[in-house]
Amino acid sequence: MLGVVANPGVDLVRFGDELRAELDALEAEVQAELDDPSLTLELVVDQPRYVAARLLDLQRSLLLSTLIVALVLLVAMGPRLALVSSAMVPLAVLSAVAVFGIGGGVLHQISLAGGVIAIGMVVDNAIVVVEEIQRRLDEGEAPPEAARASARALLNPLAASTATTVAAFFPMLLNSGAAADFTRAIPVMVILALLTSFAFSLFVLPPVASLVLRPRRRASAKLEDAEAKRPTRSLGLRVVDRLLRRPALALLPGLAMIIMAATALPSLRVRFFPPTKRNQAVVELQLREGTHVDAVAAVSETVEEELLGLDAVEQLTVTLGRGLPHFYYNLPETKAQSNFAQMLVQLRAPEEVEAVEARVDALRTQLPPGTKLRVARLKQGPPVVAPVELLLYSPGLDELRTSARAVAEALAEVEGLTAIRDSIDAGAPSLRFDLDRARNQPWGVDEAALRASLLSHTAGLPAGTVLHGRHHEPVVVRAAPRRAELEAPPAIDLPADLAVAGTRGQLRVAEVSERRLEWAPAAITRKYSKRFARVTAELEPGVELDAVRGAIEARVAALELDDAGVTVAFAGEAESAEEANDSLLRALPVGLVILVLVLVWEFDSLRCVGLVLVTVPLAAVGVIPALAVSGQPFGFMSALGVVALIGVVVNNAIVLLDLTQQLRAEGRSTREAVHAATLRRVRPILLTTATTVVGLIPLLVSNTSLWPPLALTIISGLLASTVLTLVTLPALAMLVLPLGAHRSTRTR
């Protein structure tokens, strides 16, 4: 088997096409040269085809999202407004992609998904601008003046809303670690799209809108009265009116969301990264350390026959003594070792992995003692050895061996775990030669000479390295009676007359040393210069790590390994999740500080800042019931969705409160200002929510396990925030903002 890896920066799809053409030509050349048409070159894994298919799906999602957003705008706004607003989507997204490419970015599924996420956001600024221009046109202003006045009036609120959304995605740029590197293209693409949308909405859209839009005829002399007659605005106005009479009732929606979240929280599943939906699985076989590769091949044949007997298996490829080529981006690296084999199983459908796992579970009892066999599912996210991985550190090998066995037995009692194994091997038989100093004294044989003599007939004497491709391969010199034995594996088959050189000549090794048989570790593993052992386990289908971690910690704590000088640390998915979450939490305060500073600059009022920020936790609370009801787990992608949600949900509050403050500055009472601001902003708020939601629908229903949790998190949180903005926020503004003008209005 030959693995071919493209150089960084190479177009993988084009590389795959060129490579397949080369292989077809090479196959024909070899068949002609050997006159054997049965000789074929077969592609076991064609990653470029997977990449091309995934990119095509996301490109379709991008196009579908754009069309859905345009259709929603057409129905809600009419042809002219919809045409001007929806034109911002391809303009902003394509400009962002161009800047991303100029900056050295690579177009892949993560960056394309970032573009899909941004579609609903980039149209928000355009909707607000065209609505404002249309309102001014309806009030009788000339098109050029309406365009200029709208751009001036919306400069600060749009800058603030764009800055808050950028601030929400900014922590993802500062995030570090394998998970952050995996998803970094998402915030880059979204931020670029938001910035281009802001620039186009203020500097390109107004002059275009002044040429396209026309004043609408109104029967009523007062625009607000005419607007109130529209069904959507009339409904919003009636709700606001009722809540303004009893502002305390506005707390009920937020309280209801908290109760719903608390009720749904126990049923919420947690998963760091989901498994991928690919029709492939990796089966790993490991025998005792030091086992010859021929013995591994014999056991491997047994496993192959069993797996090929499944109807779900289409093809099976085996590598002996080493791991498979790096065909999937997060497969852990495996070192070459004679006791190891790895199999790539091609399945008819992704869900057939469970059939392979069931057959492997039944097969373990039929294999030689000490054999370790497991199915490694392909997963998204950073690489891990196994979902459950515990590392045991101790300077003593006996303590490690005893503790590893005890931990493995403890894990076997935890329901939901399977394929439990440890890295401690029984060892390998070895011959130890101890120099007899009394007998050796007259001959002057030292330990270095004895070691060299033994190595020359076993593993071989080091003789330097040779460059083979990109790697330096060791060169050893080994004695062999016949040349044919040079290819034979090292063996402890020493000749009886094996000699060793001393200061007074040569003599037999048996004359100056004592030989004894002992069991020794075949390999000594260290991490951070500390000797360690690894205990791993797989999760049964449908079981999440979060559901069994408490039981694992309790079982391990009951062993009291600290008393034996053994330290236990969680690795695997738990370590990756903690590192990713800790890194995100460390970067989150930076985004929150930027968000608060932008709000203070925009409003110059701590009360308004507090009103905006109160929508954030309540919107996040709306995520929990949605994930629990849909069965989607909360993981790293959902956490990214919550972080992104912070900037998205505050935009509606900013637009509403900014207009409220403007109207209050014109002399209106708080009640009148909130009343009028909600009347004007109800449709832009509903439209921005609708466009963001429908823009994410292709990701929500995509045939992948990676994007639905992210899309559902943003959708559910945004819907919750919209309810709060139109129902709770106006009444809260009545309770929090100064009431002087409001009281004076009531006494008239």
Provide a descriptive summary of the structure in words.
The chain has 27 helices and 15 strands. The protein is an alpha+beta fold. It has 4 domains: 41 residues, no CATH class; 395 residues, Up-down Bundle (Multidrug efflux transporter AcrB transmembrane fold); 197 residues, Multidrug efflux transporter AcrB pore domain (Alpha-Beta Plaits), CATH 3.30.70; 78 residues, Multidrug efflux transporter AcrB TolC docking domain, DN and DC subdomains (2-Layer Sandwich), CATH 3.30.2090. The strands form 5 sheets. Strands 5, 6, 13, 14 and 15 form a 5-stranded antiparallel β-sheet that branches. Strand 10 and strand 11 form a beta hairpin. Helix 22 packs antiparallel against helix 26. InterPro entries: AcrB_DN_DC_subdom, Acrflvin-R. It holds the Pfam family ACR_tran. It comes from Enhygromyxa salina.
How many structural domains does the protein architecture include? 4
Beta-strand content bin: 5-15%
Largest sheet: 5 strands, antiparallel
Structural class: alpha+beta
Transmembrane segments: 58-76, 151-174, 186-213, 248-268, 584-601, 608-628, 634-660, 681-701, 713-739
Protein name: Nickel and cobalt resistance protein CnrA
Pfam families: ACR_tran
Keywords: Membrane, Transmembrane, Transmembrane helix
